[in-house]
Amino acid sequence: MTPAAARDDQTVTPLVRSAAAWSWRLLVILAAAVVTFLLLERFAVVFVPVALAMLATALLLPAVDYLDRAGAARGGAVAFVLVLGIAVFSGILAFVVNQFIEGAPDLVDQVERSADGTRDWLIHGPAHLRADQITSATDTAVNALREHQTQLTTGALSTAGTLVEILTGALLCLFTIIFFLLGGRNIWRFVTQIVPTENRHRVYEAGAAGFHSLAGYARATTLVALVDAVAIGSGLAIMGIPLALPLASLIFLGAFIPLVGALVTGFLAVIVALLAKGLIYAAITLGLIVAVMQLEAHVLQPLVMGRAVSIHPLGVVLGLTAGSVLAGVVGALLAVPTIAFFNSFIRVLIAQDPAARNAALKDEDGPLLDARADDADRPAVME
Predict the structure, then answer these.
(1) What is the value of pTM for the model shown?
(2) Residue 226 domain-assigned?
(3) What pLDDT does residue 141 have?
(4) How confident is the model at residue 62 (pLDDT cuts 50, 70, 90)?
């Protein structure tokens, strides 16, 4: 810096100089974040399947490791667990679809009876509407649907045009899961070769810690989703709500989006109860869902999720909101596991010593295992 520049710099108050220094650094970080997001958006067909594969690997890896330790061949264990997982997931989807198809006629009959009862109440009840007014409102709704039929058909065809991308992503996700289960640790060790030697071991440990939290999140989320589905499904069955089992299955799948997933899918049960049983049963169903959500928020989340992933509820809510705004349902699904991964990754990366690292990430299972160089022949993904 020249003497003139130094004198000019001294004329600026320290507060302004500090603010300027912070500002240009934050702008650089923001620019890097924007470029990263644009790249992820551009290569979403690659990034999303790999991210989903990482989440599925975290869920399936304990079973594969158990069979491996029991003496089974690693490849056979991967094949068995993967086929079993696909069969269970496909079975749930097939069950939901078949039950909806089989239960649709009865549901339609109940809806027709409810509609007739509602029509009679509107005519002879406190509203005292005329029959021609109700008929006019019904005809208006039908005509509006017919007028927008072209737009609806075009939207359906546009959605069908993404079938190739969905199949491509599914195959990529499947192959990625296979290779992660077979030799994920070696893959991660190869990736860390780009890091300078003096920091390579710490980056490897940070990745192992992130995956450790991701696995805990996957197991805890599955348990919470199962409890939500059993509790709500049992209540629906006791009340005699149609399609109780497929609705419970949908709630189980939706609960993998924390906080809001089970609530959103649960509203489908409220709608079915309203159409089939009336307002009172719909109100009871809504109360049941709210009660289960309170149980999840105040009991299951602190006891189960809190031990697996140390994330403040505000961080979960903000992450879900940002993920859903940026990437829709996929963003909401991946937001919390991404936060869980990088939360542990960064804490290990900036830890001053291994003792601090283990103290920061110790959970009920004990401290993380060290990622030593002599375990290169072990095929598991990460510690």
Answers:
(1) 0.68
(2) yes
(3) 53
(4) confident
Shared-domain flag, residues 203 and 150 = no
Q: What is the pLDDT of residue 132?
A: 64
Mean pLDDT, the chain, rounded, equals 76
Which segment of 113-127, 213-227, 346-360 scores lowest on mean pLDDT?
113-127
* Listed residue (95, 86, 29) closest to 60, CA to CA: 86
Distances in Å between the alpha carbon of 42 and those of 47, 159, 250, 325? 9, 19, 31, 17
Q: Is residue 10 part of a domain?
A: no
- Domain that includes residue 84, residue range: 42-194
Establish how many alpha carbons lie within 13 A of residue 330's alpha carbon, considering only the half-sphere containing its beta carbon: 15
**pLDDT at residue 152 tops 80:** no
Whether 11 is covered by a domain: the verdict is no
Query: In this predicted model, what pLDDT tens digit does every residue of 319-333 receive, in sequence order?
Result: 878 887 877 777 878
The total of structural domains in the chain comes to 2
Q: In the listed set 194, 220, 237, which residue is the last one of a domain according to the structure?
A: 194
| Per-residue model confidence (pLDDT) at position 355 | 47
Following CA atoms 260, 262, 266, 267 in sequence, which dihedral angle do they give, to the nearest 10 degrees?
Answer: 20
- The verdict on residue 273 lying in a domain is yes
